[in-house]
Amino acid sequence: MILRLLIVLCGLLLAQPVIADDWPSLPEQNAAVEIPAQEWPLRPGPRRVRVLVHYPGGKLANVGERTGLMLTLHNWGGTDCVGTASPTVLAEKLNVVALCVNYLQSGPKDSIEGPEPYDFGYLQALDALRALWWLDQGLQGRGVKFANGRVFATGGSGGGNVTLMCHKLAPRTFACVIDLCGMKKLSDDIAFKMPGGSDLDARFSRDPASPYFLSLDHQELRFLGNPDHLATTKSLGSRTKIITVHGRDDTTCPFPDAVEMAEGMRRAKLDVEPHFIGKDRIDGRVFTSTGHALGNRTEIVLQLGATFLSPSDADRRERTESSDFERRETIHYRTSNGAFEIDYSAGVPLGRFVASEPLSEYPNHQDLSFVLDSNGTKQGIKSPADWARRRKHIVRHFQRVTGPLPSPLRRVPLDVKIVEDVKVGSLTRRKLSFQSDPSDRVTAYLFLPVRQASSLPTSTEAGGKPTPRPAVLCLQQTTNAGKDEPAGIRGDPGLKYALELAERGFVTLAPDYPSFGEHVYDFDSKHGYVSGTMKAIWDNIRAVDLLETLPEVDAERIGCIGHSLGGHNAIFTAVFEPRLKAIVSSCGFSSMQKDDVPSWTGPRYMPLIASEFKNDANRLPFDFHELIGAIAPRPLFASAATKDSDFDVSGVKDVFAAVRPIYELNGKVDDLVSHYPEVGHSFPEDSRKRAYDFLERALRTLRSAVDGN
Description:
With 709 residues, the chain is of the alpha/beta class. The protein has 20 helices and 22 strands.
């Protein structure tokens, strides 16, 4: 009975606002206080942060039921409230308690002149969030009623960067944030003082032995347009209104980075409202510059944000769900070698990086019935969550052979260039190229219905908004014809699936595989890829990026198809690219145990199979059983020719037998479809028809699910 009472009491205590002894009390009127901050590893030991508190009317007694909370954060090199919206004006006009926070490295001595690298938003945002938590808890502890759903943030330049990072680290806390020309990306030129788009110098080192070394994981966290992290933010349920204001001629915080971030947020379906300031917006009062300065940052916030910030406006934003402080959960942002965790278990946030756990070696890669725990012990797979753990291991083991998937930082603007438009029956075939990575362009054919071709952004014709259609990425086999073959221009007429699918109403895109067609490529490791396979995967991921930009394409209904080289290229890409919602592979794989392993070791494939794994199937850290399982429960159609001399059909059947329980586990066994034509290594007409019907069913069903029909 006593134990039960203690448990209840502990629960009540945990539910109450708690401020430790070394946290100051709220001042009765506008004042500066110091709060404890998370340790900075570059200067170990206790650290405190100065916070300036601004109440409506200057007094705590003026805080009422409609009073909100707002951060207004200074610029890089500034202190207190420099370079951001005036806290006193915000407090009076918006009825908020406004906080200016001297986050880590405030002032020129530490941020500009100091030897340590500039934090670029991470610990700085945690400092600001701690101040916000302290204010929230202090008001609750005093029994002051306030509008705890009216939580906002703004900042200019470095403060804009910290504002955006605050939202990233606390995605369910803010009703609205307003970024004013903030840094969006810790690019190499900023991190390492390299030639590029900015003259900012964050003073990091590339040397792993240096205490100022910038790891890829830290750089990925500080990329505010990181598509993986934006998807995580959305999945966590963020409903924040994100207003980003950026001068078109800003070279301090490069304008292209702002465009990239806003476009990424739009694709992630976050509520972003970009304002890109050109000469047409200059009024001499609010906006005075198209560069970094912008103008009167207080008036900019009021002009663009008052609708969402004012307590009396009909369109005001106010959070109705629990904040991250209240949820007491841990947020995870995956990076290349682990994850950043923002731990709210104590209410106040604590940030940390957790490296990926060591990989256990699986005794074989054909048995999908178990997952190895951290001790290397087998645990039976009984739920989708169990399989998700095994899937993570599969992806990491596969990268031991292909090399790592490039960081999201490698996503450069697509810079699509149109080469030609040709009418093909009722279709338009558009030849184009796009920038895949910093040093390479990919050529491709895009097929569009004639009535929709004019609606592309490159067209000047007037017309209504096109009806979004499903799209299919069409991957070539091993042929010097490259993309011309699936486009039906030359090569095997039985493999013109980009053309045939377009004739059935799909938007299709057929890119050249590296070193085929017009894609000249030498597979030198200096380009940043360990294998040709991973280079092709990355090109295909960028091709999906391109499809998503087209108004003709329903981004929720993108599939992939390929024969032979294209057949396994489709599988490899789908393992890493969840936006591919249905996959067709023709004569593309078998069990590695029944395949010619040395044939996979050329520069176009995976050279490490020979150099690291000695062409031994038993040493390989993956098999197609796992890769197909990693696609589950997405619909998959495999056409496996019974007389195929390249890929043993019995190995295909072995794979399907192993994978079937994974689809059953997810209740999707009907979405795993195999077809065995009595032919050699080909994609005969009947098989193609079955594959096209499969894509139509799979993507139509998905559309119905999205629509709620």
